[in-house]
Amino acid sequence: MSDAAATESRTAMATITFSPSGETIEVPAGTSLLDAAILCELDVPAPCAGQGRCGRCRVRVTSGEVERRSNAGLATTEILDGWAVACQTYVGGSAEIEVPERRREAVRPHGHAVAEPESLPIGCDWRQDPAVRTFELDIEPPSLADNTSDFDRLRRALAQQHGIEEVRAELPMLRRLGTDLRMANWKVSVTLEMRDWVFGTYLPPRLIRIYPGAFSHASMGVAVDLGTTSVVAYLLDFATGRVVDSASAYNKQIACGDDVISRIIYAKRKRGLGRLQRLAVETINDLLEELQARNGIELYEIHEMTVAGNTTMTHLLLGLDPQYLRAEPYIPTISASPKLAAGELGLHANILARVHVMPSVGSYVGGDITAGVISSGMFATDKLTLFIDIGTNGEMVLGTKDWLLACACSAGPAFEGGGVGSGMRASAGAIEDVYISDDTWEPTFRTVDDAPAVGICGSGLIDLLGELFVTGLLDKSGHLDLEAPTARVRVRRGVPEYVVCRAGEGGADHDINLTESDISSLIRAKAAIYAGFEVLCRSVGVDLADVEEILIGGAFGQYVNIEKAIRIGLLPDQPVERFKFLGNTSAQGAYAALLCVNTRHDVLEVAAKMTYLELSADNTFMDEYTSALFLPHTDLANFPSVQEALAKRGAGPTATPESP
Length: 660
Ligand code: FES
Hints:
By secondary structure, the protein is an alpha/beta fold.
């Protein structure tokens, strides 16, 4: 082919028709089928963000010309049948592509369904003092003798009847003001946002809604915990301060990547960022509608919202390009969000409802952590406190009321069940705690909801690793004892593994095991987190033993067995009384900020006060990490309780192991 012909063929356009939707699009040859599907806004799952690793973006080429660059995980029969990996298959000419119907995942993640709590536990000093208030007004109707404008008339009534001297209103409100007042015969209730401020200066109250007559509506707020995996929304009544209901769902962005890095990669695709923003909004809207339907309220009665999420999630919700979060020197576009109204974001609350996004501190210490620090109360205590939130990233904050130092380390998805063969999220059937007999090496376990065993979730993995270690089936370097007289330890396809549940046991329909490579992922994850603790402490000249309180936030923390987490060297070996589980601190902080205006000031102050330590720029992190790549640690002297447990069972080393 001549150069000219080659150029022409490279730039040739092709028509792609998707079935069963019937969507058609013209794209240049060389476009991936995944990109073409995204341009058509089709729902093709892409958990690895199009890196060709997950094999989940399958489509079927029913006719036409495509170029396959990889068939990640497809069987030959599937390839012959036209199946293709969309992100690795490129348009050659016009083609017809079938997008399989998606099997919907259950939308209620385990542990997040809150059965009508009345309030969330808040560790900080706060009081019920919401910004949203409603006032009834009897406005004098206009006449030829009094031709004051409608808005000035309303202002006058507010000043005379409630002592509120000034009020402001935005255009959408003013557009309907004349009609609203007349329809209500000048007797109205006005809902105002009080004590809004900008750059430390309070603004006059802002008009959010006018209701006819005496106030007989609900005045509600919603606090949202926007997690990478799951999203929880709490509906609260401003009149009582009570949480009246909550709803949760998986974050719909999961279809575009399992973790924040995959989503940042996905956002780079054409229209990828738009799709991620839309999916975040859709997820929250679904929850708002669920809460509306269940509680008989109107969506316009949701007068204010708060959102706490990690820095990537809040960037995506706002439609901000997250690319610079993962490129050195890891800079977010914003730390504190601008003033936002629900309508601007597409949220199905009152369009003028203010949405307060909790401020972040750095690329990997986000609003979920500032909300957590607030709700834990650590920002106001004299005690040296360590706050930790373990997920894909281990985020931690050390400090007292006088100073706060934060860092984040990438633990990978292992503790959330990702990247581990039998790993899974904490949903029905997940093995969540394990005990192994040191006589028979037989396991006993419990599953979430007592359902037939399906896999192992994070808390189960920590338990299992700890049990294998103290029973001597696993050595300090993470190698299984192949000589152990138990058929539970075996070698399959050249990889040693421990079978925690055989097909048929506990209702399982397949073997559930932990391989040496899973163990290695878990050890790397725990080493990263423990190294974070050490670096944080050393950088301010304190020892982990000096920490008076260790607060564990986040959904994952609720289910962790402290003793077993210490056993594997994930948590420091401190007396159990020093540890406190706080639950979902991100949601708790968002709730406190919704109900207490002063708490919003505190969150901003705390975020501004927190110093962010970038571990990738810290010379000692790698050394600490390497030292922690043992069970429980290279320096066993730091783990006296583990040393004691090993000695008691006669299962392990009591001497310090050699360096790696
Ligand atoms: S293999 Fe295509 S999105 Fe993962």
